[in-house]
């Protein structure tokens, strides 16, 4: 997991108090060595929003920031304000992924991930600084830190992101695997043979531009949210014991008829 600062953050055209509060919390946490610059945290919370169940704050907050949150926001009021800022951002993501709206407009993109942007010049500056290894630098391409945040949440909440069985070759299963693999490709070295093979298999012409991959990622997030509508957790079935007849022996073992024993209390 890289904790490098992105070369630039997604532009915000107008004043956005929800984003400003979210960004401020992320920057503070990052200063306490948490891997939570805004792009990574947005990816992480996007996976929480796309999950098959509503994951509570007390579950995702410790995995998002670890002990850095308590160190950064030791004062109770500060902790409350920071938590509310993160929750407000998550709620925005959940609203973007509202299943009813996604189903009504399957060809429209509603999510706006805070993809990090990387240029050759930015990577060259980092290389000259010696802050990161060549191996890490090779993975820093637009969207890589965001994708790392998304997949980190998937790993942290693996029970909520169950993979299809290996022998399941249904279109849904194949699509699910491809969408998560796309996220992994974003955080990988584009020259890696597995990455090239993925591009050859998924795109006409055998490759895709980075912009095309990021556009596809937006729709993949929405499709993952819809995937859970058909593959989410099944509600537990309540087992109801059969009620004995009024003249049957009472199941308590008293020897009396049910109507003269526990049936009289019903």
Describe this entry's structure for a reader.
The protein is an all-alpha fold and 266 residues long. It is 54% helix and 0% strand. The chain has helices at 17-31, 38-50, 57-65, 68-72, 76-96, 99-104, 120-129, 134-137, 144-156, 171-186, 193-202, 210-231. α2 packs across α9 (144-156). The radius of gyration is 25 Å and the shape is extended.
E-strand count: 0
Q: Radius of gyration in whole Å, from Cα?
A: 25 Å
Distance between the termini: 60 Å
Low-confidence stretches: 1-8
Number of helices: 12
SS-based structural class?
mainly alpha
Oligomer: single chain
Q: What's the average pLDDT? A: 86
N-to-C series of helices and strands: HHHHHHHHHHHH
Helix content: 40-55%
Query: What overall form do the CA principal axes indicate?
Result: extended
The largest sheet, given as strand count, sense and whether it forms a barrel, is:
none
Beta-strand residue fraction: under 5%
């Amino acid at each position: 997991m890289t904790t490098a600062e992105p070369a630039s953050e997604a532009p915000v055209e107008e004043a956005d108090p929800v984003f400003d509060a979210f960004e401020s919390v992320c920057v503070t946490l990052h200063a306490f060595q948490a891997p939570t610059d805004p792009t990574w945290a947005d990816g992480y919370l996007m996976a929480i929003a796309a999950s098959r169940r509503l994951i509570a704050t007390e579950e995702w907050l410790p995995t998002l920031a670890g002990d850095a949150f308590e160190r950064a926001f030791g004062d109770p009021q500060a902790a409350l304000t920071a938590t509310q800022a993160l929750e407000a951002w998550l709620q925005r993501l959940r609203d973007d992924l509202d299943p009813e709206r996604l189903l009504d407009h399957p060809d429209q993109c509603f999510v706006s991930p805070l993809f990090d942007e990387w240029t050759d010049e930015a990577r060259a500056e980092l290389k000259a600084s010696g802050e990161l290894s060549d191996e890490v630098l090779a993975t820093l391409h637009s969207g890589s830190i965001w994708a790392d945040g998304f997949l980190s949440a998937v790993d942290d909440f693996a029970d909520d992101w169950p993979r299809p069985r290996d022998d399941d070759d249904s279109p849904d299963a194949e699509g699910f695997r491809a969408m998560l693999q796309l996220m992994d490709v974003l955080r990988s070295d584009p020259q890696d043979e597995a990455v090239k093979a993925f591009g050859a298999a998924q795109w006409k012409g055998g490759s895709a531009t980075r912009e095309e991959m990021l556009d596809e990622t937006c729709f993949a997030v929405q499709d993952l949210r819809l995937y859970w509508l058909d593959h989410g957790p099944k509600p537990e079935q309540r087992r109801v014991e059969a009620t004995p007849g009024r003249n049957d022996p009472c199941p308590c073992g008293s020897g009396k008829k049910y109507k003269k024993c526990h049936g009289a209390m019903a």
